[in-house]
Sequence to fold (183 residues):
Amino acid sequence: MWCPKGRGVGRGGADDLGNNPGRGDRLHSHQEPPTSDIELRLFELRQRLPYLIGSVVASSDGLLIAGDLPESIEPTGIAALAAAQLSISLTFVATTHGADLHEVVIDSGAGHVVVYSAGPTAMLTVVTAADAVLGRVHLEARPVAGAIADLLARSVAPAETVMTGAGFALSSNGSRSDIPKTY
Fold:
């Protein structure tokens, strides 16, 4: 996982270049450059979005794919929580509207957590400070979620079905092939 140096405590985004020595270093200590296209998308999101605390890309099962969070926030925990939130929200939407779910917004006094669908098998979770403008968050993050969905769709090999010892048919990516996913 990669975290840009000098980010996280202040506003973040393009107008906060981390020029306050030591301010962000204690939160984002990973200094390696992005090594994947997904990490690059998260870096670019950080550059464009003021008040961004961090972001995570996870599978719909809650497995961490990539992340950019301060050290004080455990990325695997956020990935698991986002998957649980998405699952509950999918059930709620299916029960009330019978439609697909595109995003979940949690608004607290401390900021926002927004979980965006990133194709049928992944999600982008964005965590912001309270001063973030939710419209701006959506404007910047929705295209990133779409780009991540495209990247993941291109990177997944055609599914080959295999039988597990329990008798469930699994595709090569480990998902059950008899259960359609609608998000």
